[in-house]
Amino acid sequence: MLGKLTRWLRILGYDVTYFRGIEDKNLIKMANSESRVLLTRDQELVHQALNKGVKTFFVKKTDNLETLVDLANWFDLNLEIKLNISRCPKCNNLIRLVSKESVMQEIPELTELHYNEFWKCIGCGQVYWQGAHWKMIIKTLEKAKRLLNNK
Description:
Elements: H1 3-11, H2 24-33, E1 38-40, H3 43-51, E2 56-58, H4 64-75, E3 95-98, H5 100-103, H6 109-114, E4 118-121, E5 127-128, H7 132-149
Helix pairs in contact: 4-7
């Protein structure tokens, strides 16, 4: 339900867990035991969680950009990417700057020719670089910041 939003928050450096197909009572229990805020579009889950004293945020919007703005406004989130605290969008572990030489066997040949900075997830080993998608990420965050400032 909120997988794309999860990836955005992780890129921004927020520790976000995401589960599919888990029972509501287990989500509530986990959020409570880990002192997490439960983000959901499920109104019944919101009511159950609030009744158990779990901090909850009802995600009203379906657009990820608008949802990021709402979250930034509500929780005072920073919409700047700081690569020293960014998390792997796939697995939520931290990413670390690595040498180009250490990832040469894991990146496409053309990437090797055009990029010199690389980050690697300490958990799943996924390698990242500021490729063509990077401009879209920055553009989206800039738009979110403008919308936030207009609220």
